[in-house]
Every structure is written in C-alpha cells, then in structure tokens.
Amino acid sequence: MSRPPRAAELNLVLCHACGMACDNSNQPHDCERCGAPLHAHKPDSLTRTWAYLIASLVFYIPANLLPVMNTTLFGSGADSTIMSGVMEFWEHGAWDIALIIFIASIAVPATKFVALALLLITVQRRSTWAQSQRARLFRFVELIGYWSMLDVLVVALVAALVKFQALGDIEPRPGILFFGMVVVLTMLAAMSFDPRLIWQRDKEQADD
C-alpha cells in the first residue's frame, strides 16, 4: 500500500503566523496571505527552547521559596509560599482549592520541565524512539499550558472573597511575580519547540 506524499516532498510549508499551507519551491519566500517569512522548521528552535526552559527553571526556585501572598485575618498576618498555602487551605477544609493550586503550581510546571527536556534531548540525539508517543506528549504539553495560570486565578478569587466578606486582607508577595515568569517562559518554550523535528531523520543540523 503506497503512502501519501509528505509535505516536504511537495515543497509545502506551514506559515507560523497564519497557518496557511504555502508553496516554498522558490526560497526565500514569504507567505502569500500574511507576508510572514516561511521556514521549513522554526528558526533556532532547539536553542531558543533550551534558553526559555533553563530560564524558567531558574525562576522556579524563588517562585517556590519566596512567599506568594500575605494573608491578614482578624488582625494577624502571615506570609505564605505555594506549598504552605496548599497546606493551609487543606487544613482549613478547602481541599479542592488546595488540590487546584498544587496541580497548577507544582505538578504542571514539573511535568512541562520533564516533558520538554525529554523532547529536546531525544531530538538532539535524533532518536527514532516512540516518535508517535513523543508527538502526543508535545500536544499534551501544549494542552496543559492553557491551565498554567489557574492557581493565580484561584488566589485572586480567594482574595476577592476575603475582602468582600470583610474577613481580612490578602496582598501579593514577590513569589507570585517569579511564578508568573515561570508560566510565561514555559509557554514560550513550548511555542519555540518545533514538533516536526521529532520526525527528522536526515543528518542536517536540527536548528537549520
């Protein structure tokens, strides 16, 4: 049974800006729809993805060590890190909020770090191991990226609820800024990675 032709065999590339399939026979060439430059692969994909991933790992340390909020209830205030906030919500019976913050703040970033590092290392080694599964892993990383700011939204809602009921006050602390940087950088890392490199088998440099 003959297979259908690949896009590369037909000199077709996908525009990174608007998603249009364009003829890339005469290089260099721009997209006919939006005028963006066309590339067979995202330029410097591995280099930029590694840079964003390492930077996010650096910011992840203070994001977990520094307090993310200060809670004042009935005149007494205390700073809370991500984990201490999770424990505090859990001990007060708000296990659902604690679980959401733990998944979004601890589990999701850790999963993205491991998954992106695995994808980068296997692509650089030009591994043919589990290519279909790695492609699905990248789509999973993209999917969970949409929920990366969920815990920040939960904290904002809790702060609004506390102030609305006049129970106390909640103020942000530097840790929330570092965590926001982690979210942005991991999203940029996922956007910079070119999943087509998973299927690349030739001997050219992956970043070309």
Automatic annotation (TrEMBL):
<keyword id="KW-0812">Transmembrane</keyword>
<keyword id="KW-0997">Cell inner membrane</keyword>
<feature type="transmembrane region" description="Helical">
    <location>
        <begin position="97"/>
        <end position="123"/>
    </location>
</feature>
<feature type="transmembrane region" description="Helical">
    <location>
        <begin position="144"/>
        <end position="164"/>
    </location>
</feature>
<dbReference type="InterPro" id="IPR051800">
    <property type="entry name" value="PqiA-PqiB_transport"/>
</dbReference>
<keyword id="KW-0472">Membrane</keyword>
<protein>
    <submittedName>
        <fullName>Paraquat-inducible protein A</fullName>
    </submittedName>
</protein>
<keyword id="KW-1003">Cell membrane</keyword>
<dbReference type="GO" id="GO:0005886">
    <property type="term" value="C:plasma membrane"/>
</dbReference>
<feature type="transmembrane region" description="Helical">
    <location>
        <begin position="50"/>
        <end position="69"/>
    </location>
</feature>
<dbReference type="InterPro" id="IPR007498">
    <property type="entry name" value="PqiA-like"/>
</dbReference>
<keyword id="KW-1133">Transmembrane helix</keyword>
<feature type="transmembrane region" description="Helical">
    <location>
        <begin position="176"/>
        <end position="193"/>
    </location>
</feature>
<dbReference type="Pfam" id="PF04403">
    <property type="entry name" value="PqiA"/>
</dbReference>
